What does this fold into?
Amino acid sequence: MRIAIVLNTSWNIYNFRKGLVEALLNEGHEVITIAPHDTYSDQLAQLGCEHHNVRMDSRGVNPIKDFLLIAELFLKYKRTRPDVILHYTIKPNIYGTIAASLLKIPVINNVCGLGTVFLDKNFASYIAIKLYRFAFQFPRKIFFQNNDDLTLFRRKKIIDKGVCEILPGSGIDLERFLPVKKNGKDKFTFLLISRLIYDKGIVEYIEAIRQLKENGVDARFQILGAIDERHRRGIPKGIIDQWINDGMIEYLGTTKDVRGAISDSDCVVLPSYREGTPKTLLEAASMGKPLIATDVPGCNNIVTDNYNGYLCKLKDSNDLALQMNKILNLDKNKLSLLGENSRKKVEEKFDEKFVIHAYLNSINKLK
It folds into this structure.
């Protein structure tokens, strides 16, 4: 079969769906990747994919741009003639599905998370729900990454529950992300891995750090991830520079391989407002790290309080500081146990092989 994978970045396909791509190729399928061009587009081609570039602005709603995206995807699908299309992220899920329906091409969608548009009740979220409700008449299968998102879509009458299934996020390659012991006897190090947008709880992390420092805590506090000022919820670079200059954080920039930063940390933190199933927490858990995250959908799928880390309250820097201080004061045996439990949990529930099997099974049913 000719199988298309459509996403908002080539980087996302390569870093989060590479295992699925390789499995499809090994099964003898032809894989077409459709995404905006970036440095990973050529690497997809080197894997054996037939790559096609598309213009796609993942930030916000623009009726003209979105109509043009439907037209562009329609033409891409008509030209490449896939037998089935796998969509991820909000715009491919909505506009790609509409384009595919016009050509009667079956689609399998993945709701990777609700995005910032669902965090507030406003005109943008109203439009998004209407668009989802229309587009999601057509998929043969819709995968969700947690029960909370599935329940929300059912409550808002967006979906037919008969085509839905829960997946453990995008899964994790357990052989690539192996447990490691931190090198040396450096200070206790907290690490947050995320794009620098407000909805990831970056400001709460900074405020928690401020509290800890004021109380005499001597630790390292790091952030790894891209500055994204173009995002409507992006944190301005000037504010980030001020945090760095004030000595609040060590900003690590971006990297093609997060394993080095994770291995050098003692605890990975993600005080996000809502997630699908956050890959960064899966990566850290797979490498045997204790975790701190908000008690919200997506995050609390991975973090079980007092088992492999601690959960903090949403948008509460005081509680986040409390949990960070708690983990700082654990003895080595308890800290090691949390890390061991992180690895155990991803082995039992989040192995990438579970995700690949579900996709192969759904695709085979379309033959």
Residues 2-171+351-364 form a domain with the Rossmann fold fold (CATH 3.40.50.2000). The chain has a mean pLDDT of 92. The CA atoms of residues 94 and 135 lie 5 Å apart. The radius of gyration is 21 Å.
